[in-house]
Amino acid sequence: MLKIVKTSIAIAATSLMMSGVAQADVAEALQNICTIVKADDKGELRKKMKRVQSDYRLKLQDYYAGISCGGNSLIRTAMLNDAVEAGTLLVKKMPKSDLSTPEQDGKTVIAWASENGLNASPNMSVLNDRI
Asked: Which residues are CB-neighbours of 108 under 8 A, at least 6 positions away?
């Protein structure tokens, strides 16, 4: 009986240590995603998203809200930097329901874009077509 308890505790401790390492690794894997979006490097962005999905089994909607590029989300960053290719990829990979929900500041991407004069952005037309 004591052996089972010791084994259970060892397994629990190991799994807790592994989960902390996994989160640090995901953050490290996503470290330069803002730079990739700003540079409008669609190929590199696609590779990064694919690598995170295969290594950590996370899709874009799983980590999108946790990434901030100077206080803006990835799609907002793409709009601000005229990153049409990267922004289009992000819009197409996000679920429609997530595109119309408010972000951290309480504004949807569409409301934020109209406040900032980005209604004519090519990413805005892709976003409107998707919603």
From this structure: 99, 100, 101, 102
> How far is residue 35's CA from residue 81's CA, in Å, rounded to a whole number?
11
User: Long-range contact list for 116-120, CB < 8 A, 24+ apart?
Assistant: 116/80, 118/79, 118/80
Residues 46, 127, 81, CA angle at the centre, nearest 5°? 65
Q: List the structure tokens of 60.
A: 């874009």
What six digits make up the tokens of 10?
Answer: 């060892």
* pLDDT band with cut points at 50, 70 and 90 for residue 103: confident
Q: Which long-range contacts (CB under 8 A, 24 or more apart) does 2-10 make?
A: none
**Residue given tokens 């991407």 in the structure block:** 109
pTM for the whole thing?
Answer: 0.75
Q: Which of 55, 41, 48, 53 is nearest to 88 (CA)?
A: 41
